[in-house]
Amino acid sequence: MIKVTKINGEELVVNAELIETVKATPDTIIFLTTGRKVIVLDSIDEIIEKVITYRRKTLAGLRIEKG
Questions:
Q1: Which domains does the chain have, with CATH numbers?
Q2: Phi, psi of 46 (to 5 degrees)
Q3: Fewer CB under 10 Å: which end of the chain, C or N?
C-alpha cells in the first residue's frame, strides 16, 4: 500500500499491486487494474519511488534461509 494525496488534499492509500499505469496530463492520474482511476497531487516520480519502497519492504520479508 502507498499513501498519495488526492487533488482535494485528502490522503488516500492505494494498493500498489493494482497500479496498471500512471499518466501526467498535467495532473497525475493513477489507473488501477480494477478500472478505477485516481487523480493525485503526487508526481509520477514520487509514485514510482513509493512503489519501489513498498516492494523492497515486501520482498525483504520473503528472504528464505538456506539450510
A1: 2-60 (2.40.50)
A2: -65, -40
A3: C
Position 36: which residue type? R
**Cα(4)–Cα(29) distance, integer angstroms:** 11
24-64 pLDDT, tens digit per residue, is 999 999 999 999 999 999 999 999 999 999 999 888 876 66
Q: State the CB neighbour count (10 A cutoff) for residue 39.
A: 13
What is the Cα–Cα distance from 58 to 67, expressed in whole angstroms? Answer: 23
Give the count of beta carbons closer than 10 Å to the beta carbon of residue 64: 5
Three-state DSSP at 12 gives strand
How many Å is the maximal CA-CA distance in the chain? 52
pTM, two decimal places: 0.84
